[in-house]
Amino acid sequence: KAKSEGRSTYHFFEAGMDAALQQRRSIEAGLRLALQRQELRLVYQPLLGLKENRVTCVEALLRWDHDDRTISPVEFIPIAEETGLIVPIGEWVLREACRTAATWPGEVRVAVNLSPIQFKSRDLVGLVKSALSEARLAPTRLELEITESLLLAESESVLKALHELRAMGVRISMDDFGTGYSSLSYLRSFPFDKIKIDRSFMADLTSRQDSQAIIRAVIGLGQSLGMSTTAEGVETEEQLAMVRAEGCSEVQGFLFSPPLPPAALANLLQSEKGASEAERKKAS
Ligand code: C2E
Ligand code: MG
Ligand code: MG
Ligand code: MG
């Protein structure tokens, strides 16, 4: 009896494992085919420059339409990183974002998220050059966002790649600042152009004094290091007023705009351009 009970417990456990593993395997298998099936697309979230009072930059964000739903990058990027699929996917993102940005008016820049795995693989600098020249996009119109990670810290070759990109005119941003273990030492190891303050600090800005103090300090830090600052996750007028008063360079968040499909983003840029031209005519 004991033996059969033991076995059924084992089977139950195994079934539970199976379900989780199955789910993961199915995402993995689906992700392998996502590129060729054209299930990946980019949405674009504009960043508002507070001094310029216009869209200064647009962040490209990945979406995966699969099995009648849209899967968030939060769900599939980690799997793409573990399997190495982030390398071809990341290459597609970079090329697609550059091609799209080349159709935008004026000096609007495009920001692309890079996974640390992409630095480990092949020739990242060569890939960026190729994506820019294929799209005929000036290097100064591209920003690369990287999050702090151990991979980056340890590697001389990563720093070399970052310096080469920067020498080309590409801007390098530190994403999600303040969430990792060693944000401050990263600022010392590389001269980032921009610090993006993680949206968790914005989220409890009104309820927590310490978050406000931290945001203020990071904006000041950016100013003294000659780096611009972006407040992520700005959802209310109150948050906007606070970061504006503190001298933040840019805001990104649902208050100004959610991520948009490419056509809607192009319309937004076009109407903004129209409005500023009308302003100029009126003034002259
Ligand atoms: P991230 O780079 O920090 O991107 C900002 C995230 O904040 C986006 O989530 C955006 O939709 C969300 N967001 C923007 N404004 C607000 C707001 O006001 N409130 C709230 N609650 N959220 C806001 P998303 O698109 O789900 O992307 C999540 C993360 O996935 C990104 O965080 C980035 O780390 C990663 N990711 C997205 N696309 C790519 C990609 O092409 N390559 C790589 N390697 N990672 C990507
Ligand atoms: Mg980002
Ligand atoms: Mg971010
Ligand atoms: Mg973030």
TrEMBL record:
Protein name: EAL domain-containing protein
Domain (EAL): residue spans on this chain: 24-273
Superkingdom of the organism of origin: Bacteria
